[in-house]
Specification:
Elements (H helix, E strand, L loop, with lengths): L6 E7 L2 E6 L2 E6 L12 H4 L4 E5 L7 E5 L7 E5 L7 E5 L16 H11 L7 E5 L5 H8 L3 E6 L2 H13 L7 E5 L2 H11 L5 E4 L4 E3 L5 E3 H15 L6 E6 L6 H11 L1 H4 L4 E8 L5 E10 L2
Helix pairs in contact: 2-3, 5-6, 6-7
């Protein structure tokens, strides 16, 4: 993966990764790094401003140990070719997330390129599901699309809206919706609404409003089938990313072939998502499917 200047994978190994987000170096868990050995000496890892450790009794939360005076939040700009740059606010959370999944950076130029390359009178209508803090939403909106941004967590949707303001893009046509992705898609189908493109980045597990529970192995394929109906007769592009260890590129390809291809045409390109250190060591970060190639 390309380093975009404000993010760098410095080292990884023994189940952890050392990363730089803007000016701050952080030490976080990484199951994909479990079989590797770090290449840098221990003193380099001690330069981290903070270290995150998951609770032994819960895989969903943990604790940050600060080694330096880390701010409560900081802003990081990201350049996207041929569209205005975006700015994301980052901060430490109890789940170990910061407001950015770095492997998504390679998707933002691709999204913008798809939108800019399509010549049509009306702006593309794009649905972004599990949209998190809005990196893909802002890339799409900055390139000229109308975007519906959906995430189950109200505070995360507010975070994304704040990122739009930081980026100077709050005036663009973005609908911000805090809702369970499956329920929203079902309602859109009942309303007869359709989209030109869909972006989704589902978690392995998740909790939505009113006690709803998401399980990727159970719920992804039915959601993809519904997404296919939303794209029927007007699919211009499609992007699915997934970080679940139980889903391979072949699994993803099979699901999309059954659920989406009939509405979009040819099969998508599936690939591994990776983060790359400056010395070209690669850390696996999930799978992605893009259509068209």
């Amino acid at each position: 993966m390309q380093n975009f200047g404000e993010y760098e994978l410095i080292d990884f190994g023994n189940g952890r990764k050392l990363e730089r987000f803007g000016p701050w170096i952080l030490d976080r868990p990484s199951p994909a790094a479990g079989q590797a050995a770090p290449t840098l000496p221990a003193d380099s890892w001690k330069e981290a401003a903070a270290r995150y450790v998951r609770n032994r009794t819960s895989s969903e939360s943990g604790k940050w140990t600060l080694h330096q005076s880390l701010p409560a939040a900081w802003n990081v700009p990201f350049a996207i070719p041929k569209v205005p740059p975006i700015t994301l606010q980052l901060k430490t959370t109890e789940f170990g997330h910061l407001g950015l999944f770095p492997e998504q950076q390679t998707n933002w130029p691709w999204i913008a390129q798809q939108i800019r390359s399509i010549n049509q009178l009306a702006p593309l209508k794009i649905l972004n599901l599990f949209a998190y803090t809005g990196g893909s939403t802002l890339a799409a909106a900055a390139a000229g699309a109308h975007v519906v941004h959906v995430d189950a967590a109200k505070n995360v949707v507010q975070w994304a809206r704040h990122n739009a303001q930081l980026s100077g893009l709050e005036h663009l046509p973005i609908r911000w919706i805090a809702e369970d992705a499956r329920k929203f898609v079902q309602r859109e189908l009942n309303r007869g609404n359709q989209y030109d493109a869909i972006i989704l980045d589902p978690p392995t597990y998740g909790h939505g409003p009113r006690g709803t529970v998401w399980q990727v192995q159970r719920d992804l394929f039915p959601l993809l089938k519904d997404c296919g109906q939303l794209l029927k007769d007007r699919c211009r592009f499609f992007l699915l990313t997934c970080h679940s260890p139980g889903i391979s590129t072949s699994d993803m390809s099979a699901m999309i072939s059954d659920a989406i291809v009939g509405h979009c045409g040819s099969p998508p390109r599936t690939m591994r998502l990776q983060l790359t250190t400056l010395d070209q060591r690669r850390l696996d970060a999930g799978v992605a499917a893009r259509w068209p190639y």
